[in-house]
Amino acid sequence: QVQVVESGGGVVQPGRSLRLSCAVSGLSFSSHAMHWVRQGPGKGLEWVAVISYDGNYKNYIDSVKGRFTISRDNSKNTLYLEMNSLRVEDTAVYFCVTEAGPRRFGPWGQGTLVTVSS
Amino acid sequence: DIQLTQSPSFLSASVGDRVTITCRASQGIASYLAWHQQKPGKAPKLLIYTTSTLQSGVPSRFSGSGSGTEFTLTVSSLQPEDFATYYCQQLNSYPWTFGQGTKVEIK
Fold first, then answer.
1. Do A45 and B94 touch (CB under 8 A)?
2. What are the beta bridge partners of residue B65?
3. CA distances for B41 relative to A18, B82, B84, angstroms
4. Phi and psi for B6 in degrees, rounded to 5?
């Protein structure tokens, strides 16, 4: 049974930073690409970033490029999202998603809430 | 970026009804289309990937079809636990975009 558990959310002021973590168990973490997806309050899903199984490929949605950094530590089975220069519009539940197979998008974690507010 | 448009955005149906949701892509995405189900306050759950492959554990009343730019999710006989919001997602090219969602409510 694959388990995906996010942590690190909270309330932060605009312009500040926050780091999210995602612990994965039940599969060979180092063999799978990983993603972050977010969902603003009352809104739909928005794909944010991807990192390849070995960390050598990364891609981001335009609105977070230069501010967010996705990374992973395969020795700890953990995914990260470093978020800098946070904006009010980054307020969302952030989900960590395993790419269990090629273009097989799931399982999802339960999400962690990030609120950017002064 | 590839845009996905779902129709309808809202659907009212009864238990036992056959329900179909359509997802149209702004350009061809081959078969790289997934469907996710989300219940209030919960994380989304993968139902179908690569257009028509059922994720393990998903009931066979769910099915997917299509290719190119038009895709459908069908629930053959709606059950009480199926009332939720459904999202399509294209995995053809980054950014991997989602449709706006279709909320399925009880009539």
1. no
2. B72
3. 23, 15, 11
4. -95, 145
By the 10 Å C-beta count (0-12 exposed, 13-18 middle, 19+ buried), B75 is classed as buried
Nearest Cα residue to B97 out of B23, B9, B3: B3
Residue in A46, A105, A109 nearest the CB of B49: A105
- pLDDT tens-digit series, residues B21-58: 999 999 999 999 999 999 999 999 999 999 999 999 99
Written as one letter, the residue type at A50 is: V
Compute mean pLDDT per 10 residues along chain A, 118 residues long, and list them. Answer: 96 98 97 98 98 98 98 98 98 97 94 98
Query: Strands B102-106 and B10-13, how do they pair?
Result: parallel
Residue A108 near residue A5, CB atoms below 8 Å: no
Q: Give the whole-angstrom CA distance, residue A19 versus residue A24.
A: 17
Closest CA to B7 of B107, B105, B106, B104: B104
pLDDT of residue B38: 98
| Nearest CB partner across the interface for A44, out of B42, B45, B101 | B101
